[in-house]
Amino acid sequence: MEEFATLPDLASRALGGGVVHADDEFFAAADHLVLPQPPVFAPRTFDHKGQVYDGWETRRRRAPGHDTAIVRLGAPGVIRGVDIDTAFFTGNYPPHAAIDGLAVEGYPDPADLLAAEWTPLVPRSPLQGDSRNLFAVTDPRRFTHVRLTIFPDGGVARLRVHGTSVPDPRLLPEVFDVAALAYGARITGCSNMFYGHPGHMLMPGLAQHMGDGWETSRRRDDANDWVTVALAAPAEIALADLDTTHFKGNAPGWATLRGSEDGQEWFELLPRVALRPDTPHRFPIGVGRVATHVRLDIFPDGGMARLRLHGRPVAGYLEDQFRRHTDGP
Fold first, then answer.
1. Distance CA 297, CA 189 (A)
2. In the structure, what pLDDT confidence band is assigned to residue 262 with cuts at 50, 70 and 90?
3. Which of 3, 9, 109, 129 could form a disulfide with 93 if both were Cys (CB 3.0 to 4.6 A apart)?
4. Among residues 110, 140, 165, which one ends one of the domains?
5. Quick one: DSSP state of residue 9?
């Protein structure tokens, strides 16, 4: 598996991604491309147009050409790779596909996007059916949209656009959740993720169920579980939100938070506090030190739905990051 596939899916509906244009979706809607859930398939399930597919499927072409779908990224950023997943499409997948990128401000309509000058990210490349087709991307610039072109027609279950979010600092408040994946925060280490990946804690919105969080296996020793987060920007943390929603018989008993200026040496942000099951906990933080990383320790194990760390970023940091990956101010 390519290393980029462990990065967040910037196109995911869970981050606000959406399909804004598709040439054709006769057999199955293009909106399926950005669903966060893995595709599913029920054999011999037919509607009035044929077998039901959890993906985007166009009609059979009888003339030269291709089909396209344009996706607005939920988190604009630098794309490190794409996954064109043809799961369950066997005799009806596209033999080739290409990916292009676009960076625009505001909220362009489909006509504007169709007329725009796109940047090639993945050239026309062969696909395998019923497979994850992974392609690395090397362009270091920030993109807001991607265009999937399939040759000549067929079905794609999911389009994953893996990368690092680069938010526009002009669109952020002075104090925000610097642990949010949508703004560029990321997991850098974890002791255990047997039941759920810690990246779920950094997702937007409330957890929908127990599987939509970080959960460790049961410890049978005297140690504890932990996770480290690289913040979206160096910041002074003012408020921490430790949310155990949905974790009832498996919430941690206690937790601590520590900060770091380099991800190695740690200082206390929140001393050991008791946690309640199925409860959002909010704690003021008054340490007055800037952190680039935060470490959450839970005692001894269990599940956390969300981790929010509200803070004020260091002046100029986000602006510098934005300029590095764009041609803007």
1. 12
2. confident
3. 129
4. 165
5. B
